[in-house]
Specification:
Chains A, B, C, D, E, F: It comes from Hydrogenophaga crassostreae. The structure is a homohexamer of 267-residue chains. Chain A has 267 residues and is an alpha/beta fold. Helix content of chain A is 40%, strand content 16%. In chain A, the strands form 3 sheets. A 5-stranded parallel beta sheet of chain A has the order 2-5-8-1-9. In chain A, strands 3-4 form a two-stranded antiparallel sheet. A two-stranded antiparallel ribbon of chain A has the order 6-7. In chain A, helix 9 runs antiparallel to helix 10 and helix 10 packs antiparallel against helix 11.
Chain lengths: 267, 267, 267, 267, 267, 267
């Protein structure tokens, strides 16, 4: 990756509405460069939070969407073929470590369990990354920090972080915000008025009670913002909710009826 | 892929007969660049719909038939070897994001579950695609939109989209059109008269009732068009139906008898 | 593959003895370029039929023996390394589509289920093949047609075509020919007299009744031609039948006795 | 592979003692270039037989020891990198087909089931081998024949030839020779006198009765030749039998006792 | 890897508080270059111990974090492409063997069981490493020693070292230190006073009793150091313990309550 | 690999104490170049024996530690990229066959079952190795012999040699030596006096009785040499036994107690 991390700087303040002491705790953790784990369901604002903190701390942020096919080389780097033979190219983790960015591994549990082992030497007091293929022992920049996200409702026996990985991180819990806060967020992000936002949050709250009773996940804040943004373009509220809150998450007719009538209750 | 997306422009209006408010909802979704998911059984017109919308919105359309062996690199791009070393080549997703096309991932559920993770950063407010191998953080063109198709009768425990993927899309349901509309489509596409088209639709309706009772899928609109096109060349209706409606979808003798006698009822 | 398809033209009429209206139906299907699926047991003449039709329609025929290790690139093409860097080479499917051949995918069910997805865009009204690695959207030549073969007794839960693939094809059933026709074929192909050919067909008919009762497949027409050709070189009929009809298909002593005594009944 | 097949010619007559009409049947099969399958237990002389026939027919013989990791490219050929880019190199099957050798695929059932599909077009009347990567349709040399070996006691549900492969071959059964013939072979190959050879064959006969009762395979002719060759160097017969007949095939103490006492009975 | 091992020298004495005779035993083992295995739970100080010994023995230390995807080539080395063709690059194991470092394979049980076979020739009296791809038989430098770590609570039936590997190592047991020692370590590493450190150790002791009763692993010394370091920055003790001791290792509400009340008992 | 096998010559006589007629039997087997299989538990001296024989017969010895990831190319050879294109490099098996070394495949059962098939043509009377990728039929040097090792207590249903492989080898059994012989070996190799060596062997004998009753393998001769060598450096006998005989092979507390008290009985 490029030496110039300007593209990874967060130039505009990302809107983030704190729900507890998470901002202060993260600042303390960053001050000792403690590796951090953000826990919580999908779409509740973990990614937004880390963007906000990167903006606040004025550090570049390199985000990696983890997946099963990701190899250690995808994180660390590899040799590329060049006109003059091979040329080393740092991967996102090495770039962040070398130049002092916050490296955010999103949904780290999706990566092959043992690929995560490559981050271990960066998470203890050595703060090094062995680039074995290059023969370099990269010492992390003083500004470097590693952050991972993790959805606890998600992991299965096959996919969980190893204890020896978990113990290397401090952890912050995230969840959907309280009613008033969430409505404020939806209104702020979409431009709908607070009354519509309140109704959308109420629908979401009903759906979240169905989690585990036919729904794998509740309706997230992100989905409410989708609904609000369609409504803001002039789509009828019921149609907007159908397209953004109901149809995407279930194909079960009974569950659709239940959600549709929750929508009808409020709009 | 080439910078020139002219080959991907839909020059002639694709015939599409709306069944409800799907055209308006899609236009509203596109106006806020909301990622969209088209749900419905095989052969009911999802691909035709997205071609129609691309034509209507005057945007190039890049279609990717997803499959299990597709890697993230197939979507994002890779380095190719050149006389002067390596040269980066955008994949279809990167091409669409860079130059402002609609990118349509057909049967996305066939792709490895975690390959789909690469589309996440394009589906939230960041609208970026990290080209990690190239070290570029590609910001999507303002015209770019991502659309996926999804057959709900299809997914198994092994193959389903993750909740964190589903929640990133608005969704539109598709199904076989009503009798009169479907007959109109068959007649329009094949040149058979409306009476023959009506009969073909009636046969399909009988077969669709057998779905789940010995048939995995009903007879689709696409198959009716196949039958009509053979009839239009002069093949006898019963033979045409046998070749296009019955033989392709079942080898079970009883089921074949049932379908053959449905054909005999109408022709 | 080479641009010159002369090697793929069928210069001499392949002997084919029609059993019903399959030649006419195929001609009608070809006239509208409908993708076709040839269904039937191994060795009953599907490959011979498609060669005959290619000869009759005066189109080059590119045959691909599908297998589990076949990748999409094997069908579509790949970049090869050259003195001047990389050079694109069309695969057999792209060659057929570009230059207007009939592309015959033999035993398509052997291919990985999702590899077959690459043929989808060639089987609907778009008739295109996206060469994603090359960045080309190949539009099929007007003469191009795709044909697949499929053995219905063969597929298992693990290996079957997807419904969304099946629905893209018209289908023709094949089976072993009737006694007189099959004897005529055996005599024609091997030079044995019709009396010997009749006996061979009678043996095959007995064996075919054992299918599912200890034999996985019956004795095919192809095997009878093998037996006849050995007899024609002067080998004793019983020895020829032992080598070509019995020993290849079973190692079970009882089944071998049953088949050997069927041979002894006629010779 | 090299164009020059001289290294593959069998210059000295390999000793082979026919047991029935197998030599004549093979000659008739070769005269019509029928693909042949040699069936029988390990070490009973299948490889020796095909070497003998290649010598008798004065054709070069290319032997391929099949294995699970063998790819189609290992048989067909591949592009190699050269100073001037890539250069095609025929694999053993293509070499044999191009220059007219007998190609012997030893233990073909070990190859991945679908790798064997690549030999199909060479086994029917087309006698072609599509070199898809090279874009060449190789027509087999008139002298080319394909021969495979197959151990029927071996195949499992997971590893068996497909019916559509089996039906493409004539088959010859092989087994351990009769007592007198086998003793003659052992004496001829090792130089021990006929009395010792007779004793070794008697030991083998006892062991073969244990097949399926604690032994996976009996003692093969090859093993008797090993025993004889150690005896011929002056090793005591019991020690020689222990090293070559007993210790290699079983670690079960009871079975070792049974075999050791069979040895002690004769020596 | 580079010939220059200076980057791998441990320049500053790593803090290590011995608990028994492990330092002396290791020195004796090193004096005969006996391969050593460090056994114990995650985060109890195995890595720190080997760093301390490398510092004490004044030998460079090359650490490899083992993982499932690690190949023998990752340890041994590989050819890299260069302007002048290929160039051999030693892997970390070959570098250590060639130049006389201590090679520490961390969490060796994560490596594929048979990858560990490559270390065998370095662990017996031959002390060689065959670089098969390079055609070199590398004889180990007199200073070279191999050390592995191993978490006995970790291995499953699928993942355990082979007996033939285990028998090649001397072994030292590690565990969490006694209360007073552990408190001393926490105070020394974080700067909190001994009273706070004592409380943190007491919390850990309670949690360690829950191992196997709802917790997969106890709270490690490393985690206590994390807690202490947050407290040292001014974070309230309960919040610091929540972030570093409780949230990372469990999502079970009852277990969280149990741990939280253990925290509340002491702070 | 290099043409020069000097690095593979065994220059100093490796200490080996024969236990029966294995040296003479091996010499006879080598005189007819019979492939040999050395059977026995881990650490009982199989590798030492083959080194001793290579020294005695004055032949170079090429040892390959087999593993699951070893491919046929790792044994046979491969093309490497060079300034002038590709260059063939013999693998260890081809090197041994070409230049007349003894090739020792250690723990051959670890290799993928079918990789072992590549050695077949070298083990029968043809004594050839087809280098299929190079197009060369390599005839083995007259001095070449192949030797494999095999631990009978080890193989599982998944990992065993095929009968058709086993039958190609003569076999020699190995086991731990008798008390006096083993004590003599331990004293000779470590320098401890014979009394200490006797005690160590007595401890091992007790442990070997536990094999199958809680221990997977007994204490090997190699481990006794480890214990002796620590004692020789001045470590207390009990501590030395703990580190080298007990801790490496079991983590079960009861088993550790049993072994520790066996140690205490003698020291």
């Amino acid at each position: 990756m490029s030496d110039n991390l300007d593209a990874y700087r967060v130039s505009k303040e990302p809107y983030y509405r704190p729900v507890a002491d998470e901002v202060e705790l993260y600042e303390a953790a960053y001050s000792v460069r403690m590796p951090m784990m953000l826990k919580g369901p999908t779409g509740c604002g973990k990614t937004r939070f880390v963007e906000h903190m990167a903006w606040k701390l004025k550090k570049p942020l390199i985000t990696v969407a983890c997946n099963e096919d990701m190899t250690a080389s995808d994180l660390v780097g590899r040799f590329l073929l060049d006109a003059n033979g091979t040329r080393w190219q740092d991967g996102p983790l090495a770039t962040a470590a070398r130049h002092g960015a916050i490296c955010y591994l999103d949904e780290v549990v999706e990566a092959r369990q043992d690929t995560t082992v490559v981050i271990h030497p960066l998470t203890d007091n050595r703060r090094v990354l062995p680039l074995e293929k290059k023969g370099e022992l990269l010492r992390a920049h003083p500004d470097f920090q590693i952050v991972i996200s993790y959805n606890p409702g998600y992991q299965s026996l096959m996919k969980d972080l190893k204890q020896s990985t978990k113990q290397r991180f401090g952890a912050l819990d995230f969840n959907y915000p309280e009613h008033a806060v969430e409505a404020e967020i939806v209104a702020h992000e979409t431009g709908v008025d607070i009354e519509v936002a309140n109704k959308l949050v109420s629908i979401a709250e009903r759906a979240r009670n169905l989690k585990g009773h036919g729904l794998d996940e509740g309706i997230s804040t992100r989905m409410l913002i989708y609904a609000g943004s369609l409504i803001a373009t002039g789509v009828a509220a019921q149609a907007a909710c159908r397209v953004t809150l109901v149809r995407p998450i279930t194909d079960d007719p009974d569950m659709r009826d239940a959600l549709d009538s929750a929508v009808a209750t409020f709009f």
